[in-house]
Every structure is written in structure tokens, then in C-alpha cells.
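> run fold Lsr2 family protein
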Amino acid sequence: MARKVMLVDDLDGTPAKHSVSITYKGSEYTLDLSQENADRLDDALEPFLSKAAKTGKKRVRSSASDKAKNDSIRDWARENGHDIPMRGRIPESIRAAYENRNEGANTSHAEPYQGSH
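> ok
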């Protein structure tokens, strides 16, 4: 049976739409935020970020929600006769089949926040 992952805003407990990662003073932080709180964070950081130099490339990191989704994909794949390893990269064909299992229904509730500015 597939599991549904729902993120909760870390500030006010409402449903979260975005997972936001921030690195500050050498520490990395992750927040799950509603659109409203993500916009508030964006507005608060904008005067600083508009003057800051970008460094490095964007890194993609796995999160707890990524692991939960991958576990769901693996469970679904096994239940539906796909041969899939317990660990490692999930083949794109299996990911696509999982995403299209209900004619395109999307069970993802969070997307990386790209900002509104």
C-alpha cells in the first residue's frame, strides 16, 4: 500500500508547500513552509541576498520526505511485479509508472522553493 507524505509548516503547523534549505554560518538548515511563510522568508532575506554573491552550484540533497517517497515507490513497484533493488537509484521507468499509476495523480505535496522574487 502506498503511503502519502504530508509536510507541516514548521512555524505555524499549517500544511507546508515548500521545503527550504538555508546555509548560514557554516550550518545547514531545512524548513518546511507554507506559501505564506515562504514568501515572508523571501521578503526578509531579499535585501541581503540582492547584495550577496552566489557561490557554488545548487546541490540536491535527499530529505526525509524523499526517503519516504522512495520507500513508497519501492513498495508500489514490488506489489505491482516490478523487479527493484532494496537500495540505490530507482529506474526512471519505475518512477514514471508510479507517478502515472492513477492516470497522472500527483501525491507529492512539497516542492523545492525557488522564491517569488
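The chain has a mean pLDDT of 81.
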